Amino acid sequence: MEQIETITAIHHPVRRRIFEYLYLHGSSQVGTLARALDQQVGSISHHLRMLERADIVERADAPDGDKRSSWWVAKRDSFSWSLDDFADSPADAVLAREAERINIAVHMRRLQEWKKSASRSPEWDGFSTDALAWATPDELADLSASLSATLDAWKRRIDTDDGQQRRPVFFFAHGFPTLP
Fold this sequence. Notes:
- The protein is built from six helices and three strands, in the order ααβααββαα.
- It has helices spanning 4-10, 13-25, 30-37, 41-53, 90-116, 137-157, and strands at 28-29, 57-60, 71-74.
């Protein structure tokens, strides 16, 4: 279960972009992050400290050993939670619902931006899949765990040092009860 502080920290739009940049590119200097994300250095530093407090990022040694520069690295690669995790705390449940709303909005915005993109090419068409089935709560939880394990295995098989050109790829899935 994620801590509510982690969930609220990562769902700020600038902090999410900082985390994603560090996850994809590895350790980075504050100034590099500011330029890449079109933000002020002071803003990036503030958000990095917030992410550090939530145990999402940590300070890293500069590759050249220079102690005067501030380098950071992501400490993890994903986040997962359920609103049910916060049923015992009404205040945390409100924060988790808002984070979930923001998260779904990010998912939909990314999908819409991709579909509208003029730079789409056939080899990067992406995919869509959906399914409808009968399931118990335990079976739905098993599906979630299975998808997470499949994604983790897929990511481990990618050899980023093989010289092939790659782009960041976003995958999201939601499983929930519904009616036909």
